[in-house]
Write a structure and sequence with these properties.
The chain contains 8 helices and 11 strands. By secondary structure, the chain is of the alpha/beta class. The strands form 2 sheets. Strands 1, 2, 3, 4, 5, 6, 8, 10 and 11 form a 9-stranded mixed β-sheet that branches. Strands 7-9 form a two-stranded antiparallel sheet. The relative contact order is 0.17.
Length: about 260
């Protein structure tokens, strides 16, 4: 059994994926690992990756774009590691970051997920861990007046903006761009609810962890660079915004609109 299985869902990100793999090779040299790339896009997109050999790496080609959660589940079911590191292709693992995440779960048997500190390419902090949604935060973040409400106290609380993000802490949830999951904490495979094509699968996973008594830990000593593209926030990104809204509705319906149960 591999100590850690790294699952990367790729969609039209061949060049960025190559950089991600390069950072992993440097970070994993002393670990027992396997890398599974689940490709939701064209095989042509993987040309930059296929141009060189990568140690302990497998590519699983899907016949169509299955969405993030379904593709990640394929990686989960075909992997063998005691721990599963889920990474977006736009992540660059920094020195010792994966070791630190593994040590976090090893030393905290009550934790099911460990999250790194994410930074922007310029080195600035990326606010990647959150508190669960309330109807107030949904209205202020997704409503028609959201641009006027960015500094509201409820938004700052949801995004944890008033916390320095420099200490180990238990958090509600974090961006699925980078998370280390304890395999034994996944009681009912698959890993993600495939009802979410894109977005909210990370919120749902962390909430299910909490329901089963597991903690989600954020460790700022594990640093990764996230070249965050935020498709749903780009002007004209109608399809991404539609996926976001659809996943939000599915999330609310799944928990019967009782967001108070997430608190």
């Amino acid at each position: 059994m591999s100590l850690v299985s790294i699952v990367i869902v790729n969609y039209r990100s061949g060049e960025i994926l190559k950089s991600c793999l390069g950072s992993l090779v440097q970070s994993l040299s002393s670990l027992d690992f396997e890398i599974l790339i689940i490709n939701n896009g064209s095989t042509r997109d993987l040309a930059p990756v296929l141009a060189q050999d990568w140690p302990n790496t497998r590519i699983i080609q899907n016949s169509s774009n299955l969405g993030f959660g379904a593709a990640a589940n394929i990686g989960f079911l075909q992997s063998s590691g005691k721990f599963l590191l889920l990474l977006n292709p736009d992540i660059l693992a920094q020195e010792n970051s994966i070791h630190v995440l593994l040590q976090t779960l090893d030393s905290s048997p009550e934790a099911g997920i460990a999250l790194p500190q994410l930074r922007n390419p310029d080195g600035s902090l990326q606010y990647s861990c959150r508190r669960f949604y309330t109807y107030t935060t949904l209205l202020l973040r997704r409503g028609p007046l959201r641009r006027l409400c960015s500094g509201h106290s409820s938004i700052r609380d949801h995004l944890m903006l008033d916390w320095n993000h420099e200490s180990l802490a238990c958090v509600d949830w974090g961006l699925g761009a980078a998370m280390l999951v304890r395999r034994s904490a996944i009681e009912d495979p698959p890993l993600f609810d495939e009802g979410f094509f894109l977005y909210f699968e990370d919120v749902d996973l962390c909430f299910r962890m909490r329901q089963r008594g597991w903690k989600v830990l954020y460790n700022p000593a594990a640093i990764m660079i996230h070249q965050h593209r935020r498709e749903s926030a780009r002007p004209g990104s109608f399809l991404a915004r539609r996926h976001h809204f659809s996943s939000l509705m599915k999330f609310l319906w799944k928990y019967r609109f009782r967001l108070n149960e997430l608190q």
